[in-house]
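Sat 14:20. Reprocessing the chain from the morning session after the first attempt stalled halfway. Input below, unchanged.
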Amino acid sequence: MLILGIILMIPIVNFIGLGYYLRVISATFAGLNELPEFDEVGDLFINGLKMFVVAIIYMIIPLILYFLAWIFAVPSATFTTGTAVWYVPFYAFSAVSWILFALALILGLLFGLMYYIGIANMALYEGELGAALRFSEILDRINAIGWGTFIIWYIVFIVVSAVVATVIGIIGIILLFILIGILVFIIGYGYLSMFQARSVALLFASSEEDLEPE
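Finished this time. Tokens:
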């Protein structure tokens, strides 16, 4: 877990950690309760890169809408005090900007939800990138899980992850002066990542009663 935690903190190299995230999901599908072997690093890196590409694909539309919202924002400029004129650069959202921003937020949340099931579907198909983009199949999975159950899981997932990450951060900062804090950061975030992977896998597996993979 120490090695995983270190890897997750290094840009580009952390693709290996993402690949291991996918491997944990696959191991959970296989009924393994123990963490899988941390080997075949090349395969882990490739699968992590695939996860990164999938994330970009899922978020590209919300990001475009978000940037368009700023493009349509109206710049506000000056105010006067006596004989002085002051320029204060800030932007006020126009009606179009608010609509675009709202769409970006809604689609971001929706695609964020679908992303986790897409990644689990990719793990089910042994790392096949296209499996993460089979939207009809992913929606069928979500329907089998139940949207209510899925949304509740997502809220709990985000809250628990945020709370645990915050606690790890606080403890790490407190202990940082004796260097133990660094280990807390590394090991803590490694375990948090594995918890997330297991949670996603178990949620996805709950749809198996109603659906069988094609």
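The CA atoms of residues 21 and 194 lie 7 Å apart.
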